[in-house]
Design a protein that fits this description.
It contains 8 helices and 16 strands. It is an alpha+beta fold. It has 2 domains: about 5-190 and about 395, Ribosomal Protein S5, domain 2 (2-Layer Sandwich); about 195-385, Alpha-Beta Plaits (2-Layer Sandwich), CATH 3.30.70.890. α1 packs parallel to α2 (about 125-135). The longest helix has 23 residues, at about 220-245. About 50% of the residues are buried. The model has no long low-confidence stretch (mean pLDDT about 95). The structure holds ligand DP6.
């Protein structure tokens, strides 16, 4: 008897042109196009195993070992139904020899290798891994772009995690969403020197979710309308060119402007939404001063901050400058000893030593731009880089045991 099962992993992506606003909340069609950098799955990923079996009584999903309800008509149910429909239409109806596994119920187990408490969005990598694993389970001939349209209905930003490298999500114009798809602007190999430093900022209170926050912005912000009509189209083009030309200075300027404008439309929402806190703003001050100094030396911008719907900073920098950026951040935000995993070998042999001993600011840096914080204000630093798209994994890496329940 055949076992129908597949496992895939998918990456996190961090937007440099932000998606914020839907014109169709059911199909998840955005009010503007967006663009992101896919981060390396070796460091941050969601892994998902899907199995179809005639004996299963209902579709079930476990997230990090705990069962998650699949609400009828909800986003998960939609993605699973769309994948079954693709299996039926593109495989089973075309070739009657193929087993009719689209009629079977599925068991799905998913696992994030980063703590949810880190406040990193897991919905993008999660829905991308779900769709990628089902595509393998169903042996679909579908392209990543077709799959992106299904992941999009799970969470908008998830469509961009179907590709590695630098990825655009074209908003499209069709009411049915058929042209609202992700597209690769450049692969990981085009600019592998693009690195990212995630500063995990502690946040006690629960913020406004992206889904409800952006809907309120659409309903109440006049600034959002200006952004959609007059700002994003031009930025999409300029940042795509900057990426193609590996022009970090332009990439950085646009990235920071777009993060700022996203937080400005959040503030322009009624009632206003604040995602950044004092720590977030201090990190901005450090990056601004760091870039000022770099421009003074004739080198252009060397770091770019961006913030999503929370206080965490993601700082993009080229490989050659990341160590300096880490040392700068640690000067203001001391880390718990042994907390930093130097996975990309920034500090060589000393990587396992106390990171705080490595803290320093560049010569000429105006130290008064921010106050120094206590240990814990930035509770972790994750150094990663641009990465590839979803990967198929072997059965040994599967998350479901023989009986079809999580291991
Ligand atoms: C600020 O994709 O999480 O991270 O489509 O409602 O699930 P839903 O929203 P989501 O929003 C992401 C917003 C953002 C910007 C971005 O990733 O482009």
């Amino acid at each position: 008897m055949s076992i129908y099962q597949a496992t895939a992993s998918a990456p996190v992506n961090i937007a440099v042109i932000k998606y914020w606003g839907k014109r169709d909340t059911k199909l998840i069609l955005p009010t503007n196009s967006s663009l992101s950098v896919t981060l390396d799955q070796d460091h941050l990923r969601s892994t998902t195993t899907s199995r179809a079996d005639a004996s299963f009584e209902r579709d079930q999903l476990w997230l990090n070992g705990k069962e998650d309800e699949i609400k009828p008509g909800g986003r998960l149910a939609t993605c699973i139904a769309e994948m079954k429909r693709l299996r039926k239409e593109t495989v089973e109806d075309k070739n009657p020899e193929e087993p009719k596994i689209s009629d079977y119920k599925v068991h799905i187990a998913s696992y994030n290798n980063f703590p949810t408490a880190a406040g990193l969005a897991s919905s993008a990598s999660g829905f991308a891994a779900l769709v990628a694993s089902l595509a393998h389970l169903y042996s679909l001939p579908a392209s990543p772009s077709v799959l992106s349209a299904i992941a999009r209905q799970g969470s908008g930003s998830a469509c961009r995690s179907l590709f590695g490298g630098f990825v655009a999500w074209d908003m499209g114009t069709q009411p049915n969403g058929s042209d609202s798809l992700a597209r690769q602007v450049a692969p990981q190999s085009h600019w592998p020197e693009m690195h990212a430093l995630i500063c995990v900022v502690s946040d006690a209170k629960k913020g406004t979710s992206s889904t409800s926050g952006m809907q309120r912005t659409v309903e109440t912000s006049a600034l959002l309308q200006h952004r959609i009509a007059h700002v994003v189209p031009e930025r999409m083009e300029s940042i795509s060119n900057a990426i193609l030309q590996k022009d970090f200075d332009t990439f950085a300027r646009i990235t920071m402007k777009d993060s700022n404008q996203f937080h400005a439309v959040a503030l322009d929402t009624e009632p206003p939404i604040f995602y950044m806190n004092d720590v977030s703003r201090a990190i901005i001050a450090l990056v601004v001063e760091y870039n000022r100094l770099s421009v003074e030396k004739g080198q252009g911008y060397k770091a770019a901050y961006t913030y999503d719907a929370g206080p965490n900073a993601v700082i993009y920098a080229l490989e050659e400058n990341v160590k300096e950026v880490v040392q700068l951040v640690v000067s203001y935000f001391p880390q718990k000893p042994e907390e930093f995993k130097d996975v990309l070998g920034l500090f060589g042999e000393r990587g396992s030593l106390d990171l705080n001993a490595q803290a320093k600011v560049p010569v000429g840096f105006n130290e008064a731009v921010a106050q120094r914080f206590e240990i814990g204000a930035v509770k972790g630093l994750i150094h990663t880089r641009v990465g590839d798209g979803p990967r198929r994994l072997s059965d040994e890496e599967g998350l479901l045991a023989a009986h079809g329940l999580p291991k």
